[in-house]
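My current task is to audit a protein record that another person submitted. My question to you is simply how this chain folds and whether the tokens agree. This is what I was given:
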Amino acid sequence: MFEQINQKKALLDANRPLPKYTVKSLREKLLLEWTYNSNAIEGNTLTINETKVVLEGITVGGKTMREHLEVLNHRDAIQFVEDIVQKGEPLSEWQIKNLHRLVLKGIDDQYAGVYRDQQVFISGAKHTPPPPYLIKEEMEQLITWYEQAETKKLHPVTRGAMLHAIFVGIHPFIDGNGRTSRLLLNLELMKDGFPPIVIKVANRLAYYEALDKAHTKKEYDDFINLVTIEVEDSLNLYLSAINKNA
């Protein structure tokens, strides 16, 4: 299943370090596309070009303060993910709460980085997240699962996809679970030297359906396949930069 991406990852690794300005422009491209698509999946109406100008510090007329904050917060959350990767810090509940705090900063400070105290439902999904009194226990179980030797042996793509799916199934926060789950997925991939991936808003339906299948039937293959396609897409982008520099 992962033969092709393993080969592409090995080729990328063999050509590292990439030129400094190539790396900078790739990071900026992916940061923009990741921020735009992750927010668009959740209903943010800023276009990719509007997202770009907001990242440059310009206000877009006719758009809400929340939509602007979602862009700036997501940029800060990506920076936090990059710092974790650089320091090689292990995953923890504290880290997840801090990541979420950045996602909701200035949008809903009362619930930023705080587990929900109310029942929530996911519109359009068959799966119902657990009641609030079970969240702490389920999050502890998620970290325990993550730390198991068996989990460590999984391919990084499988491990990252399952971390995303299990986390978003728990839906531990009132808001911002989707963005946080995609940040966690990329955190896991980046720890293993993969470039970050972009779950595209155009694939939102397939994305939701694959997640619902993972939650209701504990069948993760569709979701892992969807993530694998995006991993290959990002690897292809990086490899195209190598070919152009050759």
User: Anything to note?
Assistant: The mean pLDDT is 96. The chain has one domain: 7-245. The chain is about 65% helix and 0% strand. Residues 221-245 form the longest helix (25 residues).
